[in-house]
Write a structure and sequence with these properties.
Number of helices: 9
Helix content: 10-25%
Number of domains: 2
Radius of gyration: 24 Å
CATH superfamily of the largest domain: P-loop containing nucleotide triphosphate hydrolases
CATH class of the largest domain: Alpha Beta
Distance between the termini: 6 Å
Structural class: alpha+beta
Strand content: 25-35%
Strand order of the largest sheet: 6-7-8-3-9-10
CATH architecture of the largest domain: 3-Layer(aba) Sandwich
Order of helices and strands: EEEHEEEHHHHEHEHEEHHEEEEEEEEEE
Shape: globular
């Protein structure tokens, strides 16, 4: 299921972008509008076209069809070095024979910036990325996190209109990754720069982004704020890509543009319908953390038998068998005893916790 196509007009806009390599179609009819100062992520699995899209924005690849505009200017055929776009690569791409200072000011040297202005800009950037005092070191003398900050400072040195980030955290260990994500978001907010991140990491994209552009097979299939995309996925694919979800195949009694009425234990229940075609097959999405063993204010109740349970530190995850099929339940770990395998107990949730989604 595709999102409804639009004709974006924004600070950075991609309109009708196609990209083929020979007979291989990598990006198909892609429209994207990015506001000035916005942080947006292109999110999807390997091979979905997100990196190729980033390379077309940067000017490293040329679209087969479509137009790219930046700040009101058509940059579709403009060389990469004339686009005022900074890029942070997956492997940082630092020059090993150059010091931190030389790496950061490389773009300024190409622009023949005078020595005084260059020194001033270098000092500002090293302070911004917390590397003051390290300007004489070489990349081999830096940690992975420090190398990444050098790469970011180098990309920002030329005062770009847009900062592109190509899987910038993938080479960091788990301990560093979270801290560097926060650091990048801080830098983006402080500078006010427009940023586009390419990643396959859902939690990374959701924590950093103002909006997510979720890609599949060369197309953007949903673009929304992270919480909206998580709570209101349009398709089963999006629901499962942004974390686990229960996909229930329930009898559909009625459907219109706004609601879908389903039957649960002989009870008619209306749930929100996704935008788009009213004829495509639907499933009902229910996030595991919305299912509870205690009733609270829930209006749905069914019996479930616990088939298995797993401890994940902050949560317990239960797999249950019900009249609706398998239902996963996630419960916060609060230090109390939890039900064991084989226990039969009621599962509760609210009808507002369910969303109708396209099956594909």
């Amino acid at each position: 299921m595709q999102a409804t196509p639009t004709h974006p007009e924004g600070y950075l806009s991609l309109v009708g972008i196609d990209k083929s390599f020979g007979a291989t179609h990598v990006v198909r009819g892609l429209d994207l509008s990015v506001n000035e100062g916005e942080f947006i992520s292109l999110l999807g699995p390997s091979g979905c076209g997100k990196t190729t899209t980033l390379q077309m924005i940067a000017g490293f690849e040329e679209p087969t069809q479509g137009r790219i505009h930046l700040a009101g200017r058509d940059i579709t055929r403009l060389p990469a070095n004339e686009r005022q776009i900074g890029v942070v690569f997956q492997n940082y791409a630092l020059f090993p024979h150059m010091s931190v200072a030389q790496n950061v000011t490389f773009g300024l040297d190409l622009r023949k910036v005078d020595a005084a202005a260059k020194a001033k800009r270098l000092g500002e950037l090293l302070e911004l990325v917390a590397l003051s005092g390290l300007q004489e070191r070489y990349p081999r003398q830096l940690s992975g996190g420090q190398q990444q900050r050098v790469a970011i400072a180098r990309a920002l040195a030329i005062e770009p209109r847009v900062l592109l980030l190509d899987e910038p955290f993938s080479n960091l260990d788990a301990r560093l990754r979270g801290g560097m994500q926060s650091e990048v978001k801080r830098l983006q907010r402080e500078t006010g720069i427009t940023a586009v991140l390419v990643t396959h990491d859902q939690s990374e994209a959701m924590s950093l982004s103002d909006r997510l552009a979720i890609m599949r097979q060369g197309k953007i299939i949903q673009i929304d704020a992270p919480q909206t995309a998580y709570d209101q996925p349009r398709s089963a694919y999006v629901g499962n890509f942004l974390g686990n979800t229960n996909l229930l195949k329930l009898p559909i009694l009625r459907r219109d543009d706004r609601t879908v009425t389903v039957s649960i234990s002989q009870q008619d229940t209306a749930v929100a319908a996704p935008p788009g075609s009213p004829t495509e097959p639907l499933l009902i999405s229910l996030r595991p953390e919305r299912v509870r063993f205690e009733p609270q204010s829930s209006d749905i109740k069914i019996q479930g038998r616990i088939r298995s349970r797993e401890f994940h530190g902050s949560v317990w995850q239960f797999e249950t068998d019900t009249e609706l099929g398998p239902v996963t339940v996630s419960v916060a770990h609060e230090g109390f005893d939890v039900p064991v395998e084989g226990t039969v107990l009621p599962l509760h949730w609210s009808s507002t916790d369910m969303r109708a989604v396209y099956a594909d």
